[in-house]
């Protein structure tokens, strides 16, 4: 059973699919999650705190998907195919999730929650509750544009290091090239098959 925090984040994400973030009301999010408005403020402190936590969760879910692809959970066997799978996941995730796309590219539109000072932790909270009543710590600094993809690249280097074939292009260089290629497809979307074919060509 999801916690109140997860239910609230799910409700906020669902609300965002139906209307721009400025029109999403805290009371509506609380009602959709089946908790009180006070519980929402206790968890996140403010609407800006909710936005930060929501973006952080989606970014973390993206990285978890990258790790699944690199570990072979997607069915890809060899290290090159696992790197292909991670690139395809990056493009697919950014296509399906506007928050992931925004964090990867730094392009936030008026529909999305644009967290204030996205690369530094929140140092104060303003809400109907006092700061000391906020039970959950800040989710921490959000990645700057390009930083999330860099984290995915670093995971690729770490997870593929033991399997990378000798004599192939250096693993860090291959991971960097694939990360940058994937980002180009995020900016200019294309079918997953095109992404996979291009990455295989780069790694050949």
Which features characterize this protein?
61% helix, 9 helices, single chain, mainly alpha, 204 residues
Give me a quick take on this structure.
The chain is mainly alpha-helical. Helix content is 61%, strand content 0%. It has nine helices and no strands.
Protein model, in words:
- The protein is mostly helical and 204 residues long.
- Helices cover 61% and strands 0% of the residues.
- The protein has 9 helices and no strands.
- Helix 3 (37-44) packs across helix 4 (47-70), helix 4 packs antiparallel against helix 5 (79-96) and helix 4 packs parallel to helix 7.
- The longest helix has 24 residues, at 47-70.
Q: Beta fraction of the residues? A: under 5%
User: Can you give the helix content as a percent range?
Assistant: 55-70%
* Count of alpha and pi helical runs: 9
Q: What is the H/E string?
A: HHHHHHHHH
Q: Assign the structural class, choosing from mainly alpha, mainly beta, alpha/beta, alpha+beta, or little secondary structure.
A: mainly alpha
Q: What's the alpha carbon Rg, rounded to whole Å?
A: 19 Å
Please outline the major beta sheet. none
Mean pLDDT across the residues is 85
Number of E-type strands: 0
- Terminal CA distance: 46 Å
How does the overall form come out from the CA principal axes? elongated
Instruction: State the low-pLDDT regions, or none.
Output: 117-137
